Amino acid sequence: MVIQDISFTLKDGRKGLIRSPRDEDIPGMLDYLYVSAGETEFILRYPEECVKYTPEGEKALFDRVNASENEAMLVCLVDGKVVGNCQIVWKTGLKTRHRAAVAIALLKEYWNLGIGTRMFQEMIRIAEENEHILQMELDFVEGNTRARALYEKMGFRITGIRPNAIRLKNGTLLNEYSMIREVRRAEKIS
Question: Which of 133, 172, 185, 188 has the lowest tally of Cβ within 10 angstroms?
Fold first, then answer.
């Protein structure tokens, strides 16, 4: 699914652009994936695992997602640099098409500038426009209080826990929490 470009102002006055990924974003996306993986323990990959991401693979991913009817990827650019991305994917089976999974990440340098909130607003809009989606779902890693605060601000609540779901290089085990957000729509008046 391709979304229209969204221009917005960051808290520091700079301009941001949220849009569907394009081929021209591939080098920036590869850099973003590598850098973001090394900035926090809460992303589910280490920088050395990013070797699996290739320009060809990213192009195929962008093409597939942009042509899809049940998912959307958004990239955020500031001064032409990929600084974050998010994705929403909804199920297609009759019993599960009411569920949409979401994920988001930003470069640390761009935290606290309103980007995460703005990307979530767009994912929520996408979910609300799909008559089948009744809930949005995500997971976060124990200790990621910043992400949890954002998710709760956006209307998510904890619904479950996977004990010891994440194992860091040093052997530390961390729980993973599941959250959902019910999709609210305005009542249609006949």
Answer: 188
